[in-house]
Structures are given as C-alpha cells and as structure tokens.
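4.2 Preliminary Data

To establish feasibility before requesting continued support, the project team ran the inverse folding procedure on a target of 191 residues. The structure was first converted into the token representation described in Section 3, and no sequence information of any kind was made available to the design step. The complete token record follows.
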C-alpha cells in the first residue's frame, strides 16, 4: 500500500496504520496490521487467497483518519484487486488522507485574592464542542504548579472552556469561555 496526502500526491504519510482482516478461502483467519514508513509505503506479506477488508486503524496527528473500508481480493495466482480494480505486480494500492488542522490552547489560572497573581495548582477545566470536522470533542486539563492549563492537539473549530473542579480554599469560576483553533492551527481565547 502507499499512503499520501489527498491534496498533494507528492507528500507521503508516515506512521499511518492499516489493518487487513478476514478469512482466507482456506479457512485461515487473517488479521494483519502494518505501519507506513517515511515514503508512505507498507507491505502485507504472505496473504493467502481470499477476500479481506482493508481499513485505516490509526492516523498520525496531522492527518484525518480515513474511515473507508476497502475490499481486497487475492486470487489463486496471487493477483490482487482492491474494490474490483486490479493491482499490477509493481503497483501499490493508493490510499489518501486529508490534512488535519489542530493546535493548542494554553492559559494561566491565578488567584488574585491578595491583590497579586498567585498560581493555582489543581484546578480542572473541560474543553467541549464540535470540531469543524464534525467530531464531538471533550477534553480535560488540570492546572500545574505554575498555574498553567494546557489543552494539546485540539482540532480546528470553536469550543467552550469551563472550570469544573476547584481546589479546596479557592472560589469556583462559573463563567464559560469561548476558545477556538483557527484554520492555520492558531489557538485563541475569547474574552
């Protein structure tokens, strides 16, 4: 197989995992997984005659997971067809991923009770909403010893952040904040 950028055939996708599964014509269960290398290539070896399902099982962070299920047939002479298209001995099954835009949201949690910014450790926040890719997102992050709260690898879209657990001795903040990851992967907080 060969995995490439759906928008640029010259850009290979490294680190994608594909699973080939099914039962051979001889009754043998096949459940193989391969990972694409730096050139976007991966090889399933020694697959017996039969009909199988090929599906991406993991996609690296910069790529959207391809949900397509391909039907792969291996005949008694070793010829391969993918979704009824014959694949020549020197050809590869060409598979494509679309780039996935994502970014990080980071902010500081301080107490200002004494007129100065004092970092708050252990405050828990929830980020939730729907990404521009249609995925429901719900993530949690806890402020560290410096008061920093960090949501990593958030998909392109607009979300709400709310404090859901407050450390003992501090007053809970009930306000919900709007945040977004732009189409360039830049994270921002509204208000």
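Position-by-position output of the design step:
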């Amino acid at each position: 197989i060969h995995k490439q950028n759906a928008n640029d055939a010259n850009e290979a996708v490294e680190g994608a995992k594909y699973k080939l599964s099914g039962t051979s014509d001889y009754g043998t269960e096949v459940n193989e997984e391969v990972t694409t290398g730096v050139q976007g290539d991966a090889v399933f070896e020694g697959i017996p005659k039969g009909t199988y399902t090929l599906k991406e099982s993991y996609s690296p962070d910069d790529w959207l997971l391809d949900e397509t299920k391909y039907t792969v047939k291996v005949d008694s002479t070793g010829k391969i067809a993918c979704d009824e298209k014959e694949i020549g001995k020197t050809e590869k099954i060409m598979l494509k991923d679309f780039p996935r835009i994502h970014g990080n949201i980071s902010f500081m949690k301080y107490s200002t009770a004494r007129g100065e910014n004092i970092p708050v450790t252990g405050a828990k926040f929830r980020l939730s909403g729907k990404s521009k890719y249609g995925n429901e997102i719900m993530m949690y992050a806890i402020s560290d010893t410096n008061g920093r709260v960090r949501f990593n690898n958030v998909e392109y879209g607009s979300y709400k952040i709310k404090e859901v657990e407050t450390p003992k001795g501090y007053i809970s903040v009930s306000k919900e904040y709007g945040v977004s990851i732009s189409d360039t992967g830049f994270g921002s907080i509204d208000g």
